[in-house]
Amino acid sequence: MTIEKAAAIGGGVIGAGWVARLLLNGIDVAIYDPDPEASRKVSEVMKGARRAYKQMLPSGLPKEGKLTFAKTIAEAVTDADFIQESVPERLDLKHKVLAEIDLHAPANSIIGSSTSGIKPSDMQVAMKKHPERLVVGHPFNPVYLLPLVEIVGGAQTFPEAIEVAKEIYSSIGMKPVVIRKEIEAFVGDRLLEAAWREALWLIKDGICTVEELDDIMRYSFGLRWAQMGMFQVYRIAGGEAGMRHFMAQFGPCLQWPWTKLTNVPEFNDELVDLIAGQSDDQSSKWSIRELEKIRDDNLVAIMEALSKQNKGKGWGAGALHKNYTKQLAELASAKTKASGAAAKAKATKPVKKVAKKIAGKKG
Amino acid sequence: MTIEKAAAIGGGVIGAGWVARLLLNGIDVAIYDPDPEASRKVSEVMKGARRAYKQMLPSGLPKEGKLTFAKTIAEAVTDADFIQESVPERLDLKHKVLAEIDLHAPANSIIGSSTSGIKPSDMQVAMKKHPERLVVGHPFNPVYLLPLVEIVGGAQTFPEAIEVAKEIYSSIGMKPVVIRKEIEAFVGDRLLEAAWREALWLIKDGICTVEELDDIMRYSFGLRWAQMGMFQVYRIAGGEAGMRHFMAQFGPCLQWPWTKLTNVPEFNDELVDLIAGQSDDQSSKWSIRELEKIRDDNLVAIMEALSKQNKGKGWGAGALHKNYTKQLAELASAKTKASGAAAKAKATKPVKKVAKKIAGKKG
After folding, report:
1. Would you say B124 and B156 are in contact if contact means Cβ atoms under 8 Å apart?
2. Residue A51: its pLDDT value, please?
3. CB contact under 8 A, B291 and A315
4. Of A221, B23, B131, B247, which has the fewest beta carbons less than 10 angstroms from its beta carbon?
5. Same domain, A26 and A39
6. Of A351 and A114, which is predicted with more confidence?
């Protein structure tokens, strides 16, 4: 299942990350973003993404898709079979943008929202024509490298739309995980928010600096979580007695004073100053662009290292990375062949076929 | 600063991990553990650790230290200059064991406790002779591979003891981070506990399974946190506007219903069954030993990959890993030379020299 023509609504860090992933997969993208700086910002992200993909594919990248800047949402989505919305996290803005997308997108297109936490049911009420094709497709920064996408359906979303979305995201090298029940912030940001709140307390209370906290993460459980999640890690920690033993041993800790859980720290200028200042101490020796480069190089290296594990089959994100780079390499070698066959293959339009079924079911 | 003779009190998953790290650094260890199975369990961990270190050092390991099983705490600690306590997390037991260690250990030794969360001030009250030499040295499983150790001093701990502990842990390839204020659970377990509590809610409420939650972690922010902690990651996410912009953008989320923060889920049989059952679905195809092997191979591969980043200087845990493997390789090549020089070098006893200063200050 492939995308023929994509549209990106919003070109910030996340939107531009989607654009980069799509273009580097050879897919044409029309983007709409009213920011006069959008073109420059997207091309900065593209530069970084291209650089990262060259590390993954020293033998050469696939032919990039074509990027066009649309003047309106209507123009961007009018002939797209996949549309990803990545505008700021304000429900009123989401409503306005999704209503506009809904009005002009082909009936059989799939619409994904990058929201980090707004429920799709709360968003799709603004879509008067085909709300059943909206899913949350929540990615993680940098979108062109990190494979996870959380898929969440709302009350009006058709199950088929979720199936098609899964296949679409998989086709561009991602790992879709469908969330079973619709809640705010889904799963990833629930976990991140819990850790973030606790981290703010630790800094505010002077227990450690942001640099020390970061070191504590990346020299310990961060290394673990790059390859196994917390439940599998704790299963091993239970030793020969396993998960049940681990839970019996650590269950009581939940009642100990081990977290600040009942409060949210007051989010005032003092806290912002403290954290921003410490963050400068930690990182101002690098520009954001340099930090991005370091981060991307590290992520590629980690995924590549994991792709050689598990008797060469790859493990976790490494197994996916192995398949993804293989797929891109095949695409790259295909570009040198006659383009007729590729065009013919695309003409089967599998996304549209399934999506048509969805649209048909509604109307 | 090197350790001449170490003692390990407690040989569970953590205690045995310390033993493995010490032995593989060529340091003699006396261990005390009343469990009749202790010897078998420690040798299982040693087997895994030896295997992991062989991946790190294909050219050969240093000569291993000698392991002796002591019949009493007194026998284990009597001539040790570094003692690591890793008994279960019960304050009464910690008191009993630390009092016994204190009674028999040389006055100028350093005593580290592996506790995940008990305050050192609450433990050292049981030490009648030299409480000033107790520090928390909280490691992360697997201790022989993960470099982080949180160092925490109590009300009676001398600053010099913290300095010596830092040097001791560094000498065996670890990354010590000194926690600035004494709190329960320190920094690492505060963050872990916050994420764990949230995870329990997500499973209990049927939002996802343990396997899905693990995938959500290891295909997204887990990869990020293996190389940068959350503050540096968010600084980048702020884009060109940086940390202040990020905080302004995401500050309000703290007030949204993005976490279950105010409650602890009831920890009953139903929840344990649910999680243990889902954990079996996820992982029962591997034995714990197989999972340990996979985990260790992955960790070594990730640290090795990071050791080649940052223009070859290594990044984060990778930079440390680079130095550590170099140090071990030098130690390995030294074992083939005349042992006289090594013995002479050891005779300077730098740990004891500084530690003597501490003991002197007290008495």
Report:
1. yes
2. 95
3. no
4. B247
5. yes
6. A114
DSSP letters for B146-165:
--EEEEEE-TT--HHHHHHH
Distance to chain B for A281, nearest Cα, Å: 11
* B243 contacts A207? CB cut-off 8 A: no
- Token readout for A308 is 């050689």
pLDDT at residue B48, as a whole number: 95
Number of domains in chain B: 2
CATH code (residue A235): 1.10.1040.10
Quote the CA–CA distance of A203 and B163 in Å, as a whole number. Answer: 23
ipTM of the complex: 0.90
Contacts of B267 in chain A (CB under 8 A): 247, 251-252, 254
Report the length, in residues, of chain A: 363
- Edge-to-edge, what's the strand order for the sheet holding A82-85? A67-69, A28-32, A5-9, A82-85, A110-113, A134-139, A148-153, A175-178
Nearest to A195 among B230, B253, B315 (CB): B230
Query: Do residue B25 and residue B130 come from a single domain?
Result: yes
Whole-structure pTM over 0.95, yes or no? no
Contact A117 B242 (CB under 8 A): no
User: Do the beta carbons of residue A234 and residue B276 sit within 8 Å?
Assistant: no
pLDDT in tens, B203-224: 989 999 999 999 999 999 999 9
Query: pLDDT tens across B233-242, in order?
Result: 988 887 766 7
**Chain A closest-CA separation from residue B56 CA (Å):** 14
